[in-house]
Amino acid sequence: MAVAIMSHHLNSLSPLFSSPIMHSKSHMESRNTSVVKNLQILFDEQSSIPLVKRTAHPDLKRISSQTLATLLDEQPDNLCIIDARYPFEYSGGHITSAQNIYTEHELRLLFTKLITSSSSRPSKIIFHCEFSSERGPRLCRLFRSLDRQYNISNYPYLSFPSIYLLDGGYSDFFNHSSCKQYCQPNGYVSMFEQKYTQELKIHRHDKKVANNKILTKKLVEQQGPIQFCMS
């Protein structure tokens, strides 16, 4: 009789002991499946999307203007194009559906919006500036860093595994005859256009101020508030 009662108690307690293990196992299996799918997406895209090799910014995957034009034809709804140029450049002509995001603050807001959105996420995110030599690469790296931070407990999983830099930037895209049709308005304003000298100064000043604020915030987070001694 005692054995039967003890057996009954053990059976009733067994879910309490097995549940955490089962949950942990289920979580690990789910995580592993996500990582495998993530890597499979990267493998499939690297096999199907031709990449451009450059010595500059070798850590970033580049695609050509012709490849972007093909993607705009075949899967425009799956793309998110980030134009990192200043507003006066963007207004003078930009790639169809491109979003003008040129500050770190704006990019952080976009990342949060994409992560929390109930609609489907873009499968490919493409960055560029005028020549994709400085502003585009900088925001591209920041976006990847934000993704890494968001998925820090799920490494190497990424919410947006497929991000690219447009080789040659808007300048190259606009000057390809087969790509011009994807520019609206159909124009090209250089960052150093003479009549926008004042706007350029303002944007550069604002950028410097914003960067100083970010640097100050990081220092405060690392070292705590600055203490002033009164003598």
Automatic annotation (TrEMBL):
Taxonomic superkingdom: Eukaryota
Stretches assigned to coiled coil: none
Limits of the Rhodanese domain: 75-182
Organism of this sequence: Adineta steineri
One GO molecular-function entry: protein tyrosine phosphatase activity
Keyword Hydrolase: yes
Family listed: Belongs to the MPI phosphatase family.
Keyword Cell inner membrane: no
Catalytic reaction list: O-phospho-L-tyrosyl-[protein] + H2O = L-tyrosyl-[protein] + phosphate
Lineage of the organism: Eukaryota, Metazoa, Spiralia, Gnathifera, Rotifera
Keyword vocabulary terms for this entry: Cell cycle, Cell division, Hydrolase, Mitosis, Protein phosphatase
One Pfam family matching this protein: Rhodanese
Record GO cellular component, one term: nucleus
EC number, UniProt record: 3.1.3.48
Any GO BP annotation: positive regulation of G2/M transition of mitotic cell cycle
Matching InterPro entries: MPI_Phosphatase, Rhodanese-like_dom, Rhodanese-like_dom_sf
Listed name of the protein: protein-tyrosine-phosphatase
